[in-house]
Design brief:
Layout (H helix, E strand, L loop, with lengths): L4 E6 L5 H10 L3 E4 L1 H9 L5 E2 H5 L14 H8 L5 H9 L7 E5 L3 H4 L7 H6 L4 H11 L5 E3 L5 H9 L6 H30 L11 E7 L11 E6 L11 E4 L5 H14 L6 E6 L2 E7 L3 H11 L7 E5 L2 E2 L1 H7 L4 E6 L1 E2 L1 H7 L6 E4 L12 E6 L2 E6 L11 E2 L7 H14 L7 E5 L2 E6 L5 H11 L8 E4 L7 H9 L3 E4 L6 H10 L3 E4 L8
Parallel strand pairs: 1-2, 1-4, 2-3, 4-5, 11-13, 12-14, 13-15, 21-22, 22-23
Antiparallel strand pairs: 6-7, 8-15, 9-10, 9-11, 16-17, 18-23, 19-20, 19-21
Amino acid sequence: MEHRYALISVYDKEGVIVFSKGLSNLGITILSTGGTAVFLKEAGISFKDVSEATGFPEMLDGRVKTLHPIIHAGILARRDDKKHLKTLKELQINLIDFVVCNLYPFEKTIQKPNVNIEEVMENIDIGGPTLIRAAAKNYKDVVVVTSPKQYPEILTVLKSKKVITLKQREKLAIEAYAHTAQYDSIISQYLKDRGTDEILPQDYTVSMRKIQEMRYGENPHQKGAFYKALPPTGEPCISNAKQLQGKELSFNNILDANCAIECVKEFKEPSCVIIKHATPCGIASRSTLLQTWIDAYATDIYSPFGGIVAFNRELLKDVAQELSKYFLEVIVASGFSKDVRAILSEKKNLRLLELKGLEKESKKEGLDVRSVVGGFLVQERDVWFADQKTWKIVTKTKPTKEDLISMSFAVKCVKHVKSNSVVFVKGTRTVGIGGGQTSRVDATWIATHKGKDHIKGSIMASDAFFPFRDAVDVAVNAGVKAIIQPGGSIHDEEVIQAANEHSISMVFSGQRYFRH
């Protein structure tokens, strides 16, 4: 059998000693350089230095090591091409049959606090991606290995004296290209965010890493998985939540938990949000966490069954005791004490998600990316909130100071309800929510019907303007005393007239909150 060579150059040294020993025991000569060579030498594994093979030393502080024709000719030569083999023989270049390589930790580097641009740029790997791409291009003849997870299977095949099949090589090549593509994507995104103010570039790449494979997607006949965006955000969010107990999160659990988290982040005071099928069914901000649950639940006592609940504080024992009386799928909080976990552990299937930082005001940034068949829609995240100074009171009756506080709370709530949506609040708690309707009057009717015992004396918020006065009439008949809406309809005067006829106050916020 012709002598075989394996080039090993890895930043992540996990498992490389066992893998290298396995290759060496099979008579495969190892080529190595840099930190990997030092690591192998300390482990007593024999190897040939790349500089010895090329006759050229490492240079520029190690920036140039494997970037040499002798190395890349050995990788890229086609074994079924006689001209290629003749050229290598004439130049005394050995074929390289294995390339084992993973890359400098750019992703980890940029997550360091106060990292400087010099350190960032030094952690952009050049030789590694070049080796990987070359080997993957010639996968029919070269085995490209980019992850320690691949080592055991490859060694098992080689030790059994079997051939690594073409299908296996192709799979490794696909994984290799995915590895370098993701690497380049993270670099591109970081440098774009750091160096430009461009929000929607001509070319936009989304890089993700699978963190959970699910039993199924939205429905049992659909496959599903959860991916984390790269580079990861430090903002409190569903991808950073730590599961403390319960069954594995489902596709729908994650969608609903995300809605709950993003909604509860709107509020500084102790708050509770209850989500069912990706829309709130109860929201409250109060002085105590227990009261937030009581008030949020009272909005709609039927919908929370099997729902998701989020709190922006550490969960307390009295709240846990109350929650244990109900069937819930997920509870999210910034912390869970031992006593709380002991109480909730009796419900073994209940998922507990700990999310540090929910109690703090976090920086909200980034883009909202949604898939459509054949493409993506990309927009800025909806994090802007119109200052009360820009609001316009458009009716003869003026809102009180307390009304304005409730309006501010109501707008933050309605922002998270599926359009068309309306929300009724008293103080800083919801008493009626209507959303996901094809007409605003229907959303209003649903909200007043669900909250019929509590609507009187409430404040109403609408996510968009009223196209007609009908929804105003329905709300007033239910007992609403003030309305906040964006305004901007060609029928604004008709709507304002309706409010004046009923002697209620109306405010135009100038800001729409469609949520599709």
